[in-house]
Write a structure and sequence with these properties.
Largest sheet: 2 strands, antiparallel
Order of helices and strands: HHHHHHHHHHHEHHHHHHHHHHHE
CATH topology: Growth Hormone, Chain: A
Number of helices: 22
Distance between the termini: 25 Å
Helix content: over 70%
Structural class: mainly alpha
Oligomer: single chain
CATH superfamily: MFS general substrate transporter like domains
Mean pLDDT: 81
Length: about 450
């Protein structure tokens, strides 16, 4: 395993790479949230019924289910850098085409392809970032990728509010196409991002790995140090390795806690205006959009104390207590379906704040619990499983609000969250301060505190 990378000082190179990698999560938050605002104008313009709205809401998530597993495996086989730009180009093309859609199936198809591209970015960008980061900064910076997700969501509601306020609900085509600009910005930022030296070494390209470390970290390193830990190598690769001991339990843990977290969460973000409308918030234009935007902002704010907790208290206590506390506001709304709109906003904001713990560990855990040869595959599988929950929640929520009512819908969300708590109590591991290469089924080793064993390039 690489002591040089695990113990390297945090530099401007790491900051730029972290910013470049945040593009996928930010675009995901934006793309999945802007449709909730666009539906205000899209629904009457295209004559959509409840089933059509559910299909549009779930299409991107279904694409992410397919894309996560598929592109995670490809990323481990052909490299992180190869697909690093292609997925953003696909997002850009789909965003532009969204301006001319004129039917529910065309919208659903484009959003399915957008989901494929977004899901591809998760294993590419987070595994690349994890494999370059020093151990002491890894949890914080991987956690900040989800901050970018919520920043994208908040931005989507601000942009949507501006379009509603100054152009009107008929501007929904511009809303869907507005992600084109974000894609262009991150295409520029990502120029020159390097391949992972750990991946290069694991695939026999040790000379290239040494050269890329010298170029970006400014140190000379023994190529043998970059080779993967022998304890984590060998045996079946790809998806098969994830289902062999000890990875089977880790695979189930990462997928299930992610599933139970984002099922209720994505449904609330996508149909936030409709939920608040069921509690009496005036709907259709501005207030419900602003209320949902406020809840999205609290999701973002809640990540910051969690980022500190995972590096001080630890990963396991943070995720267990977060899930336990997240249940309370959902139960409150479930038992009080006639609560005033302000109470509903306060309860959903409390839920959003408490989600910070699982949020910042969504990509931290799968990147830390698996070795280089299947790291992106693990991230992709966890993403795919989570998007099953998100798609089911997004598809069923409007139907549940109509058929069951607000109270039972909130209690179902509380039950799903309780399952997530059980999964974390049983299976969550502590990976704080571990060397990245120590994820091999044995007890994780601590990163050396002595500093990198390398020679500075002069």
């Amino acid at each position: 395993m690489s002591r040089t990378i695990d113990n390297a000082p945090y530099t401007a190179f790491h900051r730029r790479l972290a910013l470049a990698c945040s593009g996928g999560p930010l675009l995901d938050g934006y793309i999945l949230s802007i449709v909730g605002v666009a539906l205000i104008g899209m629904r009457p313009d295209l004559g959509l019924d409840t089933a059509d709205v559910s299909l549009i809401g779930a299409a991107a998530l279904l694409g992410m289910f397919v894309g996560g597993a598929l592109f995670g495996v490809l990323t481990d086989r052909i490299g992180r850098e190869v697909m690093y730009t292609a997925d953003l180009l696909v997002m850009m093309v789909c965003s532009v085409l969204s301006f001319w859609v004129d039917g529910v199936w065309a919208i659903a198809l484009l959003r399915f392809v957008l989901g494929l591209a977004v899901a591809a970015d998760y294993p590419i960008a987070t595994s690349l970032l994890a494999e370059w980061l020093p151990a002491r900064d890894r949890g914080r910076l991987l956690g900040k990728q989800i901050v970018a997700w919520y920043a994208g969501s908040v931005l989507a509601y601000l942009v949507g509010f501006a379009f509603l306020q100054f152009v009107g609900p008929g501007s929904w085509r511009w809303m869907l196409a507005s992600s084109t600009l974000l894609c262009a910005v991150f295409l520029v930022i990502r120029r020159g991002s390097p391949e992972s030296p750990r991946w290069l070494a694991a695939h026999g390209r040790v000379g290239e790995a040494v050269a890329v470390v010298e170029k970006h970290l400014g140190v000379r390193v023994d190529g043998r140090e970059l080779m993967p830990d022998p304890a984590g190598a060998g045996g079946p690769g790809g998806l098969r390795l994830l289902w062999t001991p000890p990875y089977r339990r880790r695979t189930l843990f990462c997928g299930l806690f992610f599933f139970c977290q984002v099922g209720p969460l994505f449904a609330m973000l996508t149909f936030g205006p409709q939920i608040l409308g069921s509690f009496g918030m005036p709907g259709g234009t501005v207030l419900d959009t602003l209320g949902t935007g406020l809840v999205s902002l609290v999701f973002l704010i809640g990540c910051y104390p969690a980022l500190r907790l995972i590096d001080t208290v630890g990963r396991r206590p943070t995720i267990v207590w977060s899930f336990a506390l997240m249940i309370a506001p959902l139960v409150l709304l479930g038992l009080w379906p006639s609560a005033p709109a302000l109470v509903a906003v306060a309860a959903l904001s409390a839920y959003a704040f408490l989600c910070g713990g699982p949020n910042v560990l969504d990509w931290t855990y799968p990147n830390e619990l698996f070795p280089t040869e299947v790291r992106a595959t693990a991230v992709g599988v966890a993403t795919s499983v989570s998007r099953v929950g998100a798609a089911v929640g997004t598809y069923l929520l409007p139907l549940s609000l109509t058929g069951l009512g607000t109270g039972p819908t909130m209690l179902v969300a509380a039950g799903v969250t309780a399952v997530g708590l059980l999964v974390c109590v049983l299976w969550a591991e502590e990976t704080r301060g571990t060397a990245l290469g120590a994820a091999n089924g044995a007890p994780a080793g601590r990163a050396s505190q002595a500093g990198p064993q390398a020679v500075p390039v002069r």
